[in-house]
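Subject: Sanity check before I submit

Could someone independently write out the structure tokens for this chain? I want to compare against mine line by line before I put it in a report. The sequence has 328 residues.
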Amino acid sequence: MNQQKLDPEEEDRKKKNGDYEKAFEDTRHTFSGFRYDFIGKNTFDDTPEEREKFYNNLFNEQGGFRFWLNTYDDMLFDQKANDQAYDFWKRQVRKRVKNPEKQELLAPDVAPHPWGTKRPSLEQRFYEVVDQDHVDIIDIGKHPITEVTETGVRTDKGFIELDVLILATGFDSVTGSLAQLDIQSTRGGTIADHWKDRLQTSMGIAIPGFPNMFFLYGPQAPTAFSNGPSCTQFQAEFVEEAMRRVVKDGITRFEATDEAENDWVKRMNEKWDITLFPKAKSWYSGANIPGKRVEPLNWAGGMVEYTESLAKSLENNYQGWHTAKVGA
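---
Independent answer below. Compare away.
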């Protein structure tokens, strides 16, 4: 990640110069809500030497999410382009891992899924730590845990004695918390009932049958494919603008239409299907939860198109919404 400690003097200078105001404005015009974006050309527009230099700058010199979201336009959409990114990433990781067996586990020669279609590891020294001689790694995909006892765990590779067992079993991301809420629809049923056959929302911010209810940083919004604070801010700005208008117009009931919801589900799948994300078994699609339906949970069309869709829904007399007034 190339994280660094902040320099108070440098931070004061940035504030005085308006650097942060510019940074916040930049986030409104990028795919992911970060300051940076895809670079406007494809992987094979560059020579192998140019690609190597470019990748090195993103990965080693700048760090952060740049290798994921400040890269070639086709990296998350074309498998051959993605293979180039994976090959560079693999070589960088293997430089940091000396143990050959661990190299193959952590950065296998054949990619287990397209690079970036699972959340990239946000780490500083992870690979150096697990490469230590006293740290073992077991691929439980190949060697599943068959027994947990008071003193350890067993796989087909043998019994491992433990003092502490930490369970990192995943989480029901994006939809899990909302689906557990006992909020009743005006049509009957809960949010979970509404999602029984498919995940469906209007622009990842509202649901037909649940008037005057918005949710932020949730399913079918940019959410996990974005800078979280940017996503939440832009959604909150939309809610504020919608509330200003409905108060001004005397509207007391504001509810997403079924047509808007159906259109959004259609667009969600269209955007998802042209990417490489469907090739990965990931929490991005709910595949980490046994028995959960696998489907796109996050909007893959970028922040700019998303915020434009929100704004357009208020045009032409609230075209994406049912509205009503008390006594009307």
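---
OP: Matches mine. For the report I'm noting this point. The chain is about 40% helix and 5% strand.
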